[in-house]
Amino acid sequence: MQAGTRLGFILLLTPLLLWLTLLIIIPHIDMLLLSLRERVGVGQYATSPANYLTFFGEPLYLRTFMRTAVMSVLATVITLLIAFPVSFYIAKIAKGRAQSSLFLLCLVPFWVSELVRTFGWMILLRETGLISTLLQYLGLASGPVEMLYNDAAMMVGLVYTSMLFMVVPLVTTLESLDDAVIEAGYDLGGSGISVLREIIIPHATPGIVSGSIVVFMLSLGNYLTPTMLGGKDSLWFTELIYSQFIVRFNWELGAAFGFMLLILSSVIVWGMLRVTGQTLEKTMG
Amino acid sequence: MIPSMPQPRAYRLIYTGYIVLFFVYLGLPLAVVAVFAFNDSQFPSLPWEGFTWNWFFGDARPQIGAFHERPILRAIGTSAFVGLCVSALSLAVGTSNAFLFNRYQFRGRGLLYVLMLLPLVIPGIVLGISILVFSSTVANGAWDAVKWDITALRPGLVLVVLGQFSFITTIATLVIAARLQKFDRTLEEAALNLGADRLTAIRTITLPYLMPAMIGAFVVAFLMSFENFNTTLMLVGSDAPLTIAMFDRLKEGSTPLLNAVSLLLMLGSSCLALVMIAFQRKS
Amino acid sequence: MTPDLECSALTKRFDQSLAVDDVSFSVPPGSFFSILGPSGCGKTTIMRMIAGFLPPTSGDIRIKGKSVLDVPPNKRPVNMVFQHLALFPMMNIADNIGYGLRRKGMAKTEITRKVGEVLDRIGLPDIANRKVDELSGGQKQRVAIARCMVLEPDVLLLDEPLGALDLKLREHMKIELKALQAAFDTTFVYITHDQSEALVMSDQIAVMNAGRFEQIGTAQELYYRPDTAFVAGFVGDSNRWAGKVETVEGGTLALRTDGGLLMRATAHDRTLATGDRAEIFVRPEAIRLARSDADLAHFDNRLSGQVTSLLFNGAASRILVQSTQGGPEIEVTLPQSGEFSDVGRGDAVHIGWSGDQSNCFALDGAA
Q1: Which residue ranges does the record assign to the ABC transporter domain (chain C) (predicted)?
Q2: Residue A285 has pLDDT above 80, yes or no
């Protein structure tokens, strides 16, 4: 490299390295170290896996962990199933103005904070809420119906919150599929189902994977929706982390929890990429 | 399937019905929040007690409007300040990253690119606690070593900005890199050929071309910062940004004041989004 | 014999515009039929109606004598080679070609055998496991045809499939397509805006303009005896003058061009009367070049003039001649015998042609 380009290279590389090392890599290493520390006396610490043993020894922690994982996967699958026909409609059926306005309409709810969206669902679903009142008015219920604070309400909220992140990559990949390829599928004797299975879905795989990764991550790491819409006895794993850090001030255990969450998300994301033969660069970049 | 395939009428009707339902599902919660901002009642729920502007402009108890509620106004100010800092920082670093990955081939480029993407797949709350842990380690170290208390490293706005910056930068990088990718480099060569030096060529040709993406990245970063909850929750100190302040209120029980603030948020972000779209259209 | 494909009074209306206007034609079995026309003339619309992707506004499409209007595209006995080929990028070549066979529920071993067979036939036996984007343009072309032919369709539709290829390869593929059509002995319907593709390959060509067929005929018929001024202007190059008919005697007529030249032409059974506004077309290769007027005595049209430019293009070289009697420059093909190899700008030359070689059409709206 010439001296000039070399200087440019270093100038451009420095912010990237500073950002990644100081805000991403070192903090996570530090968190790992903290999670491997056990308080043995006042101001006395020893390295031990005690925090992880606590995690695996306490059924509540483990159960919450598994529940969070399973529910997040479920939320991802539901979001995908709801979003796919909508994305297909926007990408392939709507034309011109209708297409761009429908797409924009999909984006609008996500320009406002998740808190506002959750608040909306609370107004709709709670005992004194709109749906309960409507049901009573229609004579379908005799008294107020509480629809908040259960898993179904939480799922509605999770799916709602993540919808955009599924619709956008799906619309983008589906739009890039040439109509002629779909027509060729029919022309060669394919039916709706076989064209969907052999042509449309394989083509949309990068979009499906990147959408699913983001939705899964957002569900797994969500704190607001489970806290506000979920039941009192159905904990979300992020709530455990929050309470260890902020309420109990047991940072060592909290860090161990954080690390478990990180491992869980990495394993599932890696698995998803592996199964579909995609790479992180291709799906997210 | 696509319109060039003949389909039964029933199928088309069901499909269209589904799309309509979907948009009702999307719009309903927001519509409800907006409507109840005008309910003349202490609760954002039925029965409807009549229309009022009090939740925006009221200045007497019990209906103090959003424009007279000091803590809310301060929280909006805090959020805006944090948002501007985060957008400016991530725009600068994002642009630099985009140029780095677009213009240079070097060993470890692939690895760095993957590392750059990682913040997208780390749960926000984990990002929050890892930065919290590390900054405390540094702050405690400084205190133990030289009895120097670095307040900036204790939970507070600086950490909130850093925490949000840590993942919003990835998004800014991707937005700008996508446009830089499409840039025809012969334009820069033409500028060099016409007598510009390298930096002038970038300043007069490449940056103007990137401008829509940079404005887009700035607005997206600002909105993401404004509505961020998870990372902020772990790093917040005494000055709460708006989402945290509203969360604390919502836990205590809601009044239409929250609806009014939410409606203002919706209007604000829609305006920003429209401005951004207008800019993108123009170029 | 029943034609393989028959369209009668086929019409397609989009909102206010008439894309295809009352088009009828039939294609006999095993022939190569082309629809030639400028872009936007409606040829793609016809093709998409035959394939089933667009319902006609009125008219009928019959394949082997049976109307297919109620048959959805995936059940029609026609297959289509798309403009950009539309090979499935998510599958390898064998799966692309086997796609239609799988839809028919054919057994796996049978599919493998058939795919192997057709790959042999297109001369690419070793590419079964390649990916689509690993093939060259010409290979993709052949795979796209094989993917259809393996289904043994009654009619194969080809939608400007050579458009994306570079010039050399396109020339080569023209010959290859014709050979493939003969080898498969299937009816091809080919649409293109490139006249040389249509002229070289087709048994029959329909020239289309603004939603209507101007003429259906063999390449020679279109070239030497165009039915309309549009065909004369669209197929091949011509010198073209507008003027007024001065005399009509039996089969010959004389026309005074607006530039003042008097030209004799054969009417070729076209109805033209004295005083009609008309347009006359003379092909550059129909005009003979000479050093002296005496060499041209047997032509009924003779002019002398000066060479204004030499357009050298190998075998297709031409000169532009400015007549001493005025009028626009006339394009004349340069003979390849070497006799005029030294001709240059400013040289005085004589040109002449037989009135039998020109085509004269009444000008619309002036008759």
Answers
A1: 5-235
A2: no
CATH superfamily of the A45-110+163-284 domain: MetI-like (1.10.3720.10)
Domain regions of chain A by residue span: 45-110+163-284
**Token reading at A103:** 């797409």
The nearest CA of chain C is from the CA of B33 a distance in Å of 43
Does pLDDT of C366 surpass 50? no
CB A255 within 8 A of CB A35: yes
* Count of domains observed in chain B: 1
pLDDT > 90: percent of chain C? 34
In whole angstroms, what is the distance from residue A127 CA to residue C116 CA? 68
Start-to-end CA distance of chain B, whole Å, equals 34
- pLDDT at residue B56 tops 80: no
Q: What percent of chain C has pLDDT over 70?
A: 99
How close, in Å, is residue A173 to chain C by CA atoms?
13
| Short-list C237, C247, C198, C191, CA closest to C219 | C198
Q: Which CATH architecture has domain C5-231?
A: 3-Layer(aba) Sandwich (3.40)
State how far residue B61 is from chain A, nearest Cα, in angstroms. 23
User: Torsion angle of alpha carbons A196, A199, A203, A208, nearest 10°?
Assistant: 20
What is the pLDDT of chain A when averaged over all its residues?
Answer: 86
pLDDT of residue B282: 67
Q: Residue holding tokens 């957002």?
A: A218
pLDDT tens for C52-106 read 888 999 999 999 989 999 888 888 899 999 888 888 888 899 999 999 898 888 8
Nearest Cα residue to A216 out of A135, A132, A158, A275 = A158
Please state the φ and ψ torsions of residue C249, each to the nearest 5 degrees: -130, 110
Cross-strand partners of C318 = C311, C333
Which fold does the domain C237-362 belong to in CATH?
OB fold (Dihydrolipoamide Acetyltransferase, E2P) (2.40.50)
With beta carbons under 8 A apart, name residues in chain B contacting C52: 6
List the domain boundaries for chain C: 5-231, 237-362
Q: Which amino acid is at B167?
A: F
Domain holding B180, by residue range, is: 71-252
Query: Domain for residue B148, yes or no?
Result: yes
Cβ distance B6 to C52 less than 8 Å, yes or no, reads yes
CATH number for the domain that contains residue B212: 1.10.3720.10
Q: Closest Cα partner for C85 from A184, B83, A113, A250? A: A184
pTM of this structure: 0.83
Is the link from the previous residue into B62 a cis peptide, with omega within 30 of 0? yes
Collect all residues of chain B within an 8 Å Cβ-Cβ radius of residue A135: none
Whole-number Å distance between alpha carbons of B283 and C154: 50
What subunits make at least 3 CB pairs under 8 angstroms with B?
A, C
pLDDT band at B60 (very low <50, low <70, confident <90, very high): low
The number of CA neighbours under 13 Å toward the Cβ of B64 is 7
